Amino acid sequence: MSKVGFYRDLSYINYLNNNGIKLLDLGFDLNNVTQPDVWVLTITGTIAIERSERKLPTIISGNPWFGMPPYCLSLDDFLEKKTYNKSCAKEYFLKIMKNNLLDNFLGIGRPVKAEKGSESKFFDKFTRLIK
Question: Which one, of 51, 55, 27, 54, lies nearest residue 40 by Cα?
Answer without folding.
Answer: 51
